[in-house]
């Protein structure tokens, strides 16, 4: 399409993106997304509150009642026109995301999000490689990072559960799942929890049962929205049995072994979970007026960086691969376009805080200018598996 090529050339290989707001019918909104207070229920009370914002997404939300494009990103062609990011990727292909990703996956293979819940989420699982393949889906590997700029309050329970204590047996867990419809399973009694620390993160491989805490979280992840709920009562909310038996082969919905086997037992019960999967920032590069750190790393799927540009600085930042990004603090320019962190956006309003950078533009370098007198310009970047991560 000619309009796609024109937008791509106008931005010199950088695409301005439009916010993709996502409601969920469970939990409560943390109201840290910088959305106007009147707009958290903009899609109707029956859809629930807006609690997520998705970035660089070619993946739709797996929620009942959602329109076909919910969760999918759009590119701002001009002040009025927009084009689905998925169509832009299909049109530009390797010119946008690079030859390796296009050849291996045929599209952009990951996305990122902010999720913003007042209460902790339920203990749930994203099916492992084999379990997802049995139902024709992809696994959802994910990484969390807790940005200080978006966490003006910690929510009601800033503690996350991961897997199960190594002393717990499979039969103890199955006993809790067996009682999913008869009483409070309290399955997190068998888990292990860590208080969340701002400015750090965790990698959560597919196949690990987890209950994320109530900090607003930046989450780069693989292209999938597949999950099953293993906790039946959470903060007074009751979850139905079909949330436990979701994404199973037909006829296996009441098979407790099939439900349990979507989990990777070794990862869930390993005694060194924190050592393996807790990820503080890792220095990537430093220069005159900037600092860039890895904030998601140590896995073969997804990566992320945090770039901080000093007040008044103008820097040329090179990266190895295409990436999406969001400005979380400050204002200035990003390539040929103005950029600014949002303070309060209306639902449906366009913003200047989100971009997608082509591989060629990333490798040549993006000129970023911080036009503030005192405040740093901070940008979070999300990458696919060709990021050049040291691990």
Strand order, main sheet: write it out: 5-4-1-26-23-28-21-20-19
Tally of individual domains: 2
Distance between the termini: 38 Å
Shape by Cα distribution: globular
CATH-wise, what's the superfamily of the largest domain?
Jelly Rolls
Tally of extended strands? 28
Q: So, CATH architecture of the largest domain?
A: Sandwich
Q: What is the CATH T-level topology of the largest domain?
A: Jelly Rolls
Topology:
Blueprint: H1 2-10, E1 14-18, E2 20-24, E3 49-55, E4 74-76, E5 82-84, H2 85-92, H3 94-97, H4 99-105, E6 110-115, E7 124-125, H5 129-134, E8 142-145, E9 159-162, H6 170-178, E10 193-195, E11 201-204, E12 210-211, E13 217-218, E14 221-222, E15 228-229, E16 233-234, E17 237-238, H7 241-244, H8 256-260, H9 265-269, H10 273-277, E18 278-279, E19 282-287, E20 290-296, E21 303-309, E22 314-317, E23 323-329, E24 331-334, E25 337-340, E26 354-357, H11 359-364, E27 366-370, E28 377-383
Antiparallel strand pairs: 1-4, 1-26, 2-3, 3-6, 4-5, 6-13, 6-14, 7-15, 8-11, 9-10, 9-12, 11-18, 16-17, 19-20, 20-21, 21-28, 22-27, 23-26, 23-28, 24-25, 24-27
């Amino acid at each position: 399409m000619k309009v796609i090529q024109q937008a791509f050339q106008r931005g010199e290989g950088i695409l301005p993106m439009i916010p993709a707001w996502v409601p969920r019918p469970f939990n409560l909104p943390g109201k840290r997304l910088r959305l106007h207070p009147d707009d958290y229920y903009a899609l109707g009370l029956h859809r629930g509150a807006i609690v997520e914002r998705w970035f660089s997404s070619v993946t739709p939300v797996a929620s009942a009642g959602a329109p076909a494009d919910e969760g999918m990103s759009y590119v701002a062609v001009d002040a009025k026109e927009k084009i689905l990011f998925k169509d832009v990727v299909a049109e530009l292909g390797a010119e946008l995301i690079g030859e390796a990703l296009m050849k291996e996956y045929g599209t952009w293979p990951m996305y990122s999000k902010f999720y913003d819940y007042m209460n902790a989420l339920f203990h749930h699982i994203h099916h492992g490689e084999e379990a997802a393949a049995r139902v024709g889906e992809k696994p959802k590997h994910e990484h969390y990072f807790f940005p200080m700029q978006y966490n003006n309050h910690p929510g009601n329970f800033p503690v996350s559960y991961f897997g199960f204590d190594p002393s717990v047996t499979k039969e103890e867990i199955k006993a809790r799942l067996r009682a999913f419809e008869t009483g409070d399973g309290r399955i997190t009694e068998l888990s292990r929890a860590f208080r969340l620390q701002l400015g750090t993160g965790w990698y959560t491989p597919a196949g690990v049962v987890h209950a994320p805490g109530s900090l607003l979280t930046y989450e780069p992840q693989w292209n999938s929205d597949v999950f099953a709920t293993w906790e039946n009562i959470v903060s007074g909310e009751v979850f139905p049995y079909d949330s436990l038996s979701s994404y199973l082969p037909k006829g296996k919905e009441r098979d407790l072994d099939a439900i349990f086997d979507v989990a990777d037992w070794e990862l869930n019960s390993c005694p060194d979970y924190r050592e393996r999967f807790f990820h503080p920032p890792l220095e990537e590069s430093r220069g005159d007026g900037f600092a860039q750190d890895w904030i998601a790393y140590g896995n073969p799927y997804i990566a992320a960086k945090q770039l901080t540009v000093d007040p008044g600085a103008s820097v040329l930042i090179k990266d190895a691969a295409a990436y999406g990004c969001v400005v979380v603090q400050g204002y200035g320019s990003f390539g040929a376009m103005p950029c600014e962190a949002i303070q309060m956006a209306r639902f449906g309003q366009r913003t200047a805080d989100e971009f997608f950078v082509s591989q060629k533009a990333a490798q040549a370098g993006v000129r970023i200018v911080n036009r503030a007198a005192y405040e740093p310009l901070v940008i979070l970047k999300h990458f696919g598996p060709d990021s050049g991560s040291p691990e």
